[in-house]
Write a structure and sequence with these properties.
17% strand; alpha+beta; 6 helices; NADH Oxidase
């Protein structure tokens, strides 16, 4: 599903949804630059810029599959059955672009609470997801592929002493038509405080 070029920015935000099943093409290099630059506009208390990204594409995707799936199996995760491994490999082979996501831990910071740094990294990812959608592509934020296996994080150059690994964004073109997501009414989640006793 591509965004109608005449759609308003607000419509683009409310029509975004996750697409797990993706295919080529991925965003072109100049589009990827725009997407990653959008990540830099996230709210960021203290200007710590706690977000970090690792781009994985082309032949490196197969190497990522080998590394991550082998690490998950070595970790003893019982969910990584041969059938699961086969389906994950097939899925990864169809995705043209992965972006690994991490939060840089500001060890020397004594002012900005860590949860605010994590929120800033999450906001940065949301900007990426919105930019991907606004350019007519689709994405899926996955915490599979060994996100919680330290060996995977280390192999991506994100030492666990300095980074909190947050998963992978799979990015590409939707592989099939998917209906718009049904969203709840905001009133189920919002109250107004008036200060009255």
């Amino acid at each position: 599903m591509t965004v109608n070029q005449t759609a308003t920015p607000l419509h683009a935000l409310t029509s975004r949804r996750s697409f797990k099943f993706l295919r080529a093409p991925a965003p072109k290099p100049d589009e990827l630059e725009q997407i990653l630059q959008a990540a830099m506009s996230a709210p960021d208390h203290g200007a710590l810029r706690p977000w970090r990204y690792v781009v994985i594409q082309g032949e490196a995707i197969g190497k990522l599959a080998d590394m991550a799936l082998d690490a998950v199996k070595r970790s003893g995760d019982p969910r990584m059955t041969p059938e699961k491994e086969k389906s994950v490999r097939e899925w990864m082979a169809s995705v043209p672009l992965f972006i690994a996501v991490a939060q840089k831990i500001a060890h020397g910071n004594t002012k900005i609470p860590e949860q605010e740094q994590l929120l800033a990294a999450g906001c940065s990812v949301m900007n990426i997801l919105n930019a991907v959608h606004m350019l007519g592509y689709a994405a899926f934020w996955s915490t599979g592929l060994g996100t919680y296996v330290e060996e995977v994080q280390d192999a991506l150059g994100l030492d666990s002493l300095d980074y909190r690994f947050l998963g992978f964004l799979a990015v590409g073109t939707p592989a099939c038509a998917v209906p718009p997501a049904k969203r709840p009414d905001y009133r189920e989640f919002v109250t107004e405080w008036t200060g009255a006793a």
